Request: fold
Amino acid sequence: MEPRPIEELRSEVVDQIAAGEVVERPAHLVKELVENALDADAKDIEVEFDEGGRRVRVSDDGTGIRPSDLKRALQRHATSKISVADDLWRLSSFGFRGEALASIAAVSRIELVSRPKAESVAHRVSAEFGTIKAIEPSAGNLGTSVHIESLFENVPARLKFMKSEMAETAQVKAVLKATALSRPDVGFRLKTKGRVDLQFPVASGFLARAKSVLGVKLYETEGEFEGLKVEAVFSGPEDVLGNGKGLWFFVQGRWIQDRSLQAAVVEAYRGLLMHGEYPIAAVKITVPDGEVDVNISPTKSAVKFRDPSRAFRAVSRTLRSALELAPWMQDGTRGAAMASGAVPAMRDVNAVSAGVVSAVSQYSSQYSAGSTVRGEARSVSEFTRPYRAKTDEPSSVSSERPDVETSRSAAGDSFFAQTAESSPVAEVHKGKWSSLKVIGQAGLTYLVCEDGDKLIFVDQHAAHERVAYERLMRAWREGGIEAQALLIPLVIELEPESLEALLSQAQDLAKMGFAIEAMGPRSLAISSFPALLKESAVKSGLEELAVRTLERGGSFVVEEKIGDVFARMACHSVVRAGQPLGLEQMRSLLEQMDEFPLSSFCPHGRPVSVEYPYARLERDFGRTV
Ligand code: ADP
Ligand code: MG
Reply:
């Protein structure tokens, strides 16, 4: 067979190919046009959208285009935004390739009407499927209006792949909302089929704009973390969705979609949401130049962080600190007394660590020592026995922190007694929970308490679970997790890339109690692991971590995972429903709850307490008129 000659593609074919990338779907086209308007300093932008995106008009009040440049605006690689390759690296505008309009012009009928300030009349240029027509004067306001019709009519293959009108409209709305969130200083309007669908007038700031875009009660926070600046607005735990569609992310002002940042937000809400619930939040991240590559896709909806785990931490910690203040308690029905109790007062590291060790040990004694008791009611004496079962085995427990060791052996007694003792907060600060008057236990499951004008029922299991969980999390953050050292390292075989992935996490793993080292391209030696894990679970646990790391391509996975591990562990290591508690134990539990913020929800998101105002009793008894 004869070789076929190599030929250059005709320019309209090139344009059509580019159009496939730049305007893969009409919503992308809207995004390009809106970004052009923003690049032109517009303060008011109107989008009209019809026929599932085959007809689009975007009008703005920006700087406009000179009549002499109008034609060039439709030509490929013509842009006013960069002139030398170096400019590519100092990009502050959205567009820069100069290919959006040319690409769109290749696959539609397009009309550009524009009038800069210096011109007394507007001019228009139009093109039909790539053929540019002459420029002529036209009626038109200051600014630019781009009108597109018959999108993809000359590319039947693409037409077939158009999504339904509904799906495309939804996507355009998402684009408008995202843009509106990133630019409160600009007014936006979306009309579909001639009706105003969305309208966001110029807002005073991020929070105000976010409220009008997201439509729920939101709170605001900001923080700086390892050079990353994070600004966020977020909902309380009562405003949730069943999917992540209420989560919006912006990096350097650009809307992006990023699973790891989503996970970071969910992580921050850990313990506040039920499984499968997502909060509503918008997060803006600003990173130093060179820390991020924003141009990895033509539609620019993804970014590559140089250090994804840093971005994860920055987002989850900034949000977490704000959530720990439980701002939703400050307003509304729950009152200020509750709110004051939501703020942590205890910062004594040793005391906290001691508490953690006790929680861990108790867990260990219950599970590692081969106990088969699960879920059933256990007697008080079993629950409060000294946690020595595990520590009696001489080789199995080693603590790297002598102070932890000491405080543990000194403390000696039951989980409740010990932690109550080492908890200075109970004396110096009467928090929300400890100031409740305990009346008794109901149904072997609920503490019945009184607080002024209401009864409060506290779920003993959920409450204790919360405390154990927070202790573990805090110990982990402060490096106080108990590790179990092995005399002979455990060696596991892994795929080389899994091994690499785990080694990249070594530091975070060390904080969890794992000491790992490569023994070859496929062998990993483990010389210590968290005391709370059974040895048999170590391999599968690490393998799962490796898979997650590879999937997500970052080292944040450990942080994401740790909450799961601790939540599960806390659930198994604490007092259960059906277990009788004495008055002192109940008081002690309430005092421990005051050590931590967010005590109002168990780590799985169930409420810890339920209130019953006397006003309701009175009503039920018919005492009120
Ligand atoms: P890019 O945005 O990458 O430069 P485009 O094809 O989107 O490429 O636009 C080409 C040029 O047309 C822009 O560089 C800009 O000068 C001009 N332009 C496009 N839209 C507008 C607008 N709404 N207002 C002012 N100028 C515009
Ligand atoms: Mg552009």
Notes: The longest helix spans residues 349-367. Residues 32, 36-37, 40, 60, 62-65, 73, 79-81, 95-102, 144 surround adenosine-5'-diphosphate (ligand 1) (CB under 6 Å). The chain has four domains: 11-200, 206-323, 337-475+571-619, 482-562.
